[in-house]
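Example complex used in Figure S2.
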Amino acid sequence: MARVEVTLRVNGEPVPLAVEPRTLLVHALRDELGLTGTKIGCDTSQCGACTVLVDGRAFKSCTLLAVRLNGAEVTTIEGLADGMRLHAIQEAFAEQHGLQCGFCTPGMILATADLLARDSDPDEEAIRRGLIGNLCRCTGYQGILASVRAAAEASR
Amino acid sequence: MIPAAFEYVRPDSVEQALAELADPDAKAIAGGHSLLPLMKLRLARPSLLVDLDGLDLRGVSVDGDTIRLGALTTYDELLFLDASVPLPAALRDCANAVGDLQVRNAGTVGGGLAHADPASDFAAGAIAVGATLVLQSPAGTREVAAADFFVGPFTTLLKQQELLVELRVPVRGERSAYVSFDDPASGYPLAGAAVCGDAVGLTGVAAHPLAAPDVLDELGLDDYRRHLVTVAIDRARGAAR
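Predicted assembly (397 residues):
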């Protein structure tokens, strides 16, 4: 199958890629670019572990074709911190015990980034609803709720 | 899971897209959140994917007493519409009921209707508010009532070389709402009811979304589901605004 040349901007850097049309974004990120912070959980667009930002909005990268994203700005968990300085959402998840095993955390954090971009002061229901597409099997979600609230406060 | 190999084109006009769809194994892709999962499971194996992203079919405008929704308008865009657009509350409720934040960022109103899932939330709303769907083919355009569009599970009146390009929603000022009882695992409705004035659109209870309630007796529903539909309609009437 012929490959198609596309250029994505990944974490601020232009990245030329030659992809098969069927290449999923999550595979391009992990296998081609080595950005393994983006996780493959269910691979059926339910668990949200593969969530990344595309042009600032949260998407499940297991359900996006890389070939369709020519010119798009993709932000993965690796692109959130400023050098060694964690992003406010990352800081909040660490402080508030918003993770245990950590597998869902990159997706949780990037979905939170989209959620807080539209609603800077979400109540508990809005947080639960906003993160309904992200599953966590460890925390029971209470720590995640506290993390999102703390991130919202820190970001205001 | 990786889809089977396919060719990919990204036309920049509806006419070009329709020409590409002349290939009987071609499929159009919009948000892709219905089609790609099927392709990953290899339940769908199009040989050619026609990307609709380059088409000018996005956005919402008000034209007299009609709201025009471009087929590529996402559910998320409907939820964050300018307050001056008098979108019926039922359509907002339906958009809000679709998937999750990430899915609503991707999913499009036209793509969802064309996919015709028997449990589509948005289809119930489109039927209840009396939306007209504009279908374009090389022969021209035709208009079909949302209530007539669905003919079976994942089956509509759309022909292979035809695209749903616009939804026209009449502004009647009638109170409306959508209420559903969802399967907790899948999120899809076991029964969903949209009401708008006296009109009712149902989803999840038959081979395809349909206008009701006159047909309820003919659906052969199990008792529990019949009960769910009745309660959903009542609650939607109560929530109408």
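Chain B is about 30% helix and 30% strand. The two ends of chain B are 44 Å apart (CA to CA).
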